[in-house]
Amino acid sequence: MKILAFESSCDETSVSIVENGQIRSNIISSQYFHKKYGGVVPELASRAHLEAICELTTIAFEQAKLLPTDIEAIAVTTEPGLIGSLIVGSNFAKGLSVKYNLPIVPINHIEGHIYSGLISNSGCGFPFINLLVSGGHTAIFLVHSFNDYEIVGLTRDDAAGEAFDKIAKLLGLAYPGGPEIDKLAQLGNSKRFDFPRSMINSGDYDFSFSGLKTSVKNFVYKNYPGGVPSEVLPDIAASVQAAIVDVLVAKTIRAAEEHRARNIVISGGVSANSWLREKMKTKAAEIGISTYAPEMGYCMDNAAMIGFIAEKKLLEKGRESFFRLDFRVSANALRSRKKNE
């Protein structure tokens, strides 16, 4: 089955072609111009998607060495995300569905990330614990199968990626801040500054990173009112990164132990963080749990993960279940603890 997939939930426009679980092409265009604003501007993001999506689709077909008439189904992200950005991808996909009389599978962006670690790690079996950690989401899922998962824990305020970005901005680093902190942290001493590990011993699997953000802000204003010296930045970055990663790792491993899952999958933009990958793998291995993470190209928002999970849904329900065009996009983020909601 050859599936044409689209992802446009935030500031990456991505088009992919997936065939039998294999990625034939995965084109991603990132909107770097948002850096000068210190964050994503929704209206500008949707305009950029509109300008890029047609050309990227052409490139995706060229890379896959296929024609539009070879495609058997379409998949598109419909939630959660920026409404204007989602509308661009959804309407473009619907237009192609009508033109070529193809089924179209609406996909939850979160589901794409949950299963993205399996694209290149087919050996990971169910059930597994998924740590989804990005700029917009931090959550733990217990995943039973490709169509059955449940929320185990959520962030109560800032997502981990948001904390990275906001602290990086406070330190005068470029947006997005997560990768900048990761680079600096590799040169620093993570034990020099003791920042709070919020809720690490709360007894549940929820997260909170707003307190860390406030703690770092107060620390910087008190000790470096004129700006943080360049020689101190690596140590602050390493200490902040350790505070975030320690909580993520501790809660994820405890969740795996409680639910008797022998596999952990980390996904989302922050899953590219080198220290998170290393520490999760090391700590999990100590108790016989395997850790998997997506290839770097599948950590960020991408259409390959959308096509990958869409193929599973098509195989389960059949093509005839996906010819409706009345689905809508939604900005709603994770809020419920109910299965598949």
Report on the architecture of this protein.
The protein is of the alpha/beta class and 341 residues long. It contains ten helices and ten strands. β6 (128-133) and β7 form a beta hairpin. The longest helix has 26 residues, at 233-258.
Side by side, the strands of the main sheet go 3-2-1-4-5
CATH architecture of the largest domain, by name, is 2-Layer Sandwich
CATH topology label of the largest domain: Nucleotidyltransferase, domain 5
* SSE run: EEEHEHEHEEEHHHHEHEHH
Characterize the largest beta sheet: strand count, sense, and whether it forms a barrel.
Answer: 5 strands, mixed
Separation of the first and last Cα atoms: 27 Å
Integer-rounded radius of gyration: 20 Å
SSE class: alpha/beta
Structure summary, number of beta strands = 10
SS strand fraction: 15-25%
Overall geometric form:
globular
Mean pLDDT: 94
Helix residue percentage = 40-55%
List the helices and strands and how they pair.
Layout: E1 2-7, E2 12-19, E3 22-30, H1 42-64, E4 73-79, H2 83-100, E5 104-108, H3 109-116, E6 128-133, E7 138-145, E8 148-154, H4 160-170, H5 177-185, H6 210-223, H7 233-258, E9 263-267, H8 274-285, E10 290-292, H9 296-299, H10 303-317
Parallel strand pairs: 1-4, 4-5, 6-9, 9-10
Antiparallel strand pairs: 1-2, 2-3, 6-7, 7-8
